[in-house]
UniProtKB/TrEMBL annotation:
This is DNA ligase. It comes from the Bacteria. SMART domains: BRCT, HhH1, LIGANc. It comes from Paraburkholderia solisilvae. Belongs to the NAD-dependent DNA ligase family. LigA subfamily. The lineage of its organism: Bacteria, Pseudomonadati, Pseudomonadota, Betaproteobacteria, Burkholderiales.
């Protein structure tokens, strides 16, 4: 299809319009020559094949380039124009404002960032400097004027010239079918075209533009009167301070939504935590609270966004014939319009759009609580009119609420497959997210403390899609006098073993890993892994049956299983039973390292298990070892040492280990402990070798250092104690100097080795 669009007026040249289109990242089918041939600057018309979706962007880019060309045409040459822009403050300020406005448009409207943040900040700072030196150059719509309003004592009321009405709601398929029937019957026409768009979970506002300049912003309020939040809204970078294009109305009221994207909400809460301030419960609360700050500088620090979706007063330009046309016009003028919209027909089309949006709701970068349907044709909207405080031509189709209020009755703890202890909220039943919720996760003890959630509180419960319900926060103002703080139990509610929490970990855990029924399946599965006891044929489904039929409680019980018991399992043939028995027999003799790994001690992997076996030689010294003694093992740090110590301090685990060591169960060959590591100035030090040493090969130097108890590493870090550098030392030497790591030559290394032996 060919479209005709009004572009720039003379003196913009054909070639410059062609350049504007050639810059546009389209489908690549239009060459510069073919575009230029279709541009008639004298008639102000350009004709080319395109989709309607790309038209506003192309028009904007044409206008921007042509406006620049018009400006340049007033100067002798492009080179002299550049010199004038650089030397004349007024021209420089104008050019900087244009660049910043263009970058904002590309980022917030086109969603195609074209200027790196660092470059944007550089231009912004330069504009601030130019305006500071020449205050007479400051314009109301300058990007620097977004922040600067005084702290207000309150918000002035604003009367909306055209009321900001609410919408009637629909919740079921039947509600939507009934809405479509009412509209069709009233119009005497079917099917009806509807414009469908998202219903944002934010704060509705009205923006007033006069002659294309942003003049005022007001909240919805009661629909007739809102609050003046102009200075705060001015700080929102996605809202243009000046409208673009050739059809800018004399007066325009833009209706839309201020919201906060999920990623921005998470970053804001992270900053709140770091500053020791209370976190926001959800993005909507954060957006509303940010918009109603009395100090615009605070609002400017909050990452707010905006989408336009409606209109109030319009003077000086004709109203578009359709709602979809209105949004296209907004887009052309530089206003952010959401791309998740469509024009459909009839109830089936409405429900199809609802289902499509619902399927990707959780993946959207912002929160929505439904979709909005509007009769697309403006004349049909006018024919349908309004009822009470809502239009007859529109309906909000709401998703089931994702958040709801209820009472926190109790806090219990549950034990996960790996022993993790999770506080769980027991709630008064509440319908949220399409289901009745009675339990919700509280994640961990620190989260309960941070959110200050207490038994008896009125809490906000969130359930989104298939996500486990969670308690978002408590309404402190509703807290009863007898509300009780949560106390983490010290013993596992399932097996009675001690609950332990390692330093720097948020999760507390049951220490009865081999004994606890809640961890039984996980413990058995790990015990049978190839790198552990390698019990071939003992898969998850077999473990499920053995545990659920109470045939196996601990790993030691595996070695009591007989042929008849295994053959009786569901879908377990005689051959499979015999193969598993053979694997169990083979597993009866293993190595100490495999046995240690099979115990499933937290933080103890295959490598650490080998280091423990090598260092101690037998199991009993490991069981008796103190944390300090465990720290002597290669690559065992404080957290790992504490985890090992806690595991063997739990009596239930020791009982299972003794059962496994009983005659006829599991055996291994034990040996003497490894010789004590050398003691001296190099013991435990990390050293990096680089370059060529005068008399020593690198391998010889490495052997000498390791014999002295040092660890020779391959790269330099803050943990490096020394770097030994020879000739042609490269990046490792530079890194050492950057980090302040001591650098030795071969002679210095030998002196350290001599001190080691004296």
């Amino acid at each position: 299809m060919f479209r005709v669009a009004k572009v720039a007026s003379p003196p913009c040249s054909v070639n410059r319009a062609g350049e504007a289109l050639a810059e546009w990242p389209g489908d690549g089918n239009l060459s510069r020559a073919s575009v230029s041939a279709r541009v008639w600057a004298r008639t102000e018309l350009a004709v080319w094949p395109m989709s309607r979706d790309t038209l506003p962007e192309i028009i904007w880019r044409l206008n921007f380039i042509c406006e620049s060309a018009d400006s340049m045409a007033r100067t002798p040459s492009s080179h002299s124009a550049s010199r004038a822009a650089a030397n004349a403050p007024a021209e420089r300020a104008r050019w900087l404002r244009e660049q910043l406005e263009r970058a904002n448009y590309a980022y917030y409207v086109l969603d195609q960032p074209e200027l790196p943040d660092a470059e944007y900040d550089k231009l912004f700072k330069e504009l601030e400097q130019v305006e500071a030196a020449h205050p007479d150059l400051i314009t109301p719509d300058s990007p620097t004027q977004r922040v600067g309003g005084e702290v207000a004592s309150g918000f002035e009321p604003v009367t909306h010239d055209m009321p900001m009405l609410s919408l009637n709601n629909g919740f079921s398929d039947e509600d939507i079918a009934a809405f479509d029937k009412r509209v069709s019957d009233a119009l005497g026409h079917a099917p009806v075209d509807y414009a469908c768009e998202l219903k944002f979970d934010g704060l509705a506002i009205s923006l007033r533009y006069v002659d294309g300049r942003f003049m005022q912003a007001a909240t919805r309020g009661d629909g007739a009167t809102g609050e003046n939040v102009t200075e705060n809204v001015r700080t929102i970078r996605s809202i243009p301070l000046t409208l673009k294009g050739r059809r800018v109305p004399k007066v325009l009221d833009v209706r839309g939504e201020v919201l906060m994207f999920k990623r921005d909400f998470e970053r804001l809460n992270e900053r709140q935590r770091e500053a020791g301030h209370r976190e926001f419960a959800n993005p909507r609360n954060a957006a509303a609270g940010s918009l109603r700050q009395l100090d615009p500088k605070i609002t400017a620090q909050r990452p707010l966004s905006f989408f336009a979706y409606g209109i109030g007063v319009l003077e000086g330009e004709p109203m578009p014939d359709t709602h979809s046309g209105l949004l296209d016009w907004y887009h052309e003028m530089g206003l952010p319009v959401n791309s998740q919209r469509a024009v459909v027909q009839g109830a089936d089309g409405l429900l199809g759009f609802f289902g499509k949006v619902g399927g990707k709701r959780d993946a959207l970068p912002y929160d929505i609580d439904g979709v909005v349907y509007k009769v697309n044709r403006r004349d049909q909207q006018e024919a349908l009119g309004f009822v009470s405080r809502a239009p007859r031509f529109a309906l909000a189709h709401k998703f089931p609420a994702q958040e709801a209020l209820t009472t926190l009755v109790a806090i219990d703890v549950q034990v996960g497959r790996t022993g993790a202890i999770t506080p769980v909220a027991r709630l008064e039943p509440v319908f949220v997210g399409g289901a009745t919720v009675t339990n919700a996760t509280l994640h961990n003890e620190d989260e309960v403390r941070r959110k200050d959630i207490r038994i008896g509180d009125t809490v906000i419960v969130r359930r989104a899609g298939d996500v486990i319900p969670e308690v978002v926060g408590a309404l402190i103002e509703r807290r009863p006098a007898d509300a009780k703080e949560f106390v983490m139990p010290t013993a596992c509610p399932v097996c009675g073993s001690a609950i332990e929490r390692l330093p720097d970990e948020a999760i507390a855990r049951c220490s009865g890993g081999l004994f606890c029924p809640a961890q039984r399946k996980q413990a058995l599965w790990h015990f049978a892994q190839r790198r552990a006891l390698d019990i071939d044929g003992l898969g998850e489904k077999i473990i499920d049956q053995l545990v659920e039929q109470n045939l196996v409680r601990t790993p030691a019980d595996l070695f009591n299983l007989g042929f008849a018991t295994l053959a009786a399992l569901d879908r377990f043939a005689d051959k499979s039973a015999q193969n598993l028995l053979d694997s169990l027999d083979k597993a009866r003799h293993t190595t100490l390292a495999r046995f240690i790994y099979a115990l499933g001690i937290r933080h103890v992997g295959e490598s650490t298990a080998k280091d423990l076996a090598k260092h101690f030689g037998s199991l009993d010294p490991i069981i008796r070892a103190s944390v300090d003694e465990l720290l002597e093992v290669n690559d065992v740090g404080p957290i790992v040492a504490e985890a090992i110590h806690q595991f063997f301090a739990e009596e239930h685990n020791l009982t299972v280990i003794e059962q496994l060591r009983a005659p006829g169960r599991v055996t291994w060959t034990e040996g003497p402990p490894a010789p004590k590591a050398p003691q001296g100035v190099l013991a435990g030090k990390t050293i990096v070798l680089t370059g060529t040493l005068p008399t020593l090969a690198r391998e010889d130097a490495k052997a000498m250092l390791e014999a002295a108890g040092a660890k020779v590493a391959g790269s330099v870090s803050k943990k490096t104690d020394y770097v030994v550098a020879g000739t042609e030392a490269g990046s490792k030497l530079a890194k050492a100097e950057e980090l302040g790591v001591p650098v030795l030559d071969e002679e210095g290394m030998r002196k350290l080795l001599e001190r080691q032996t004296t």
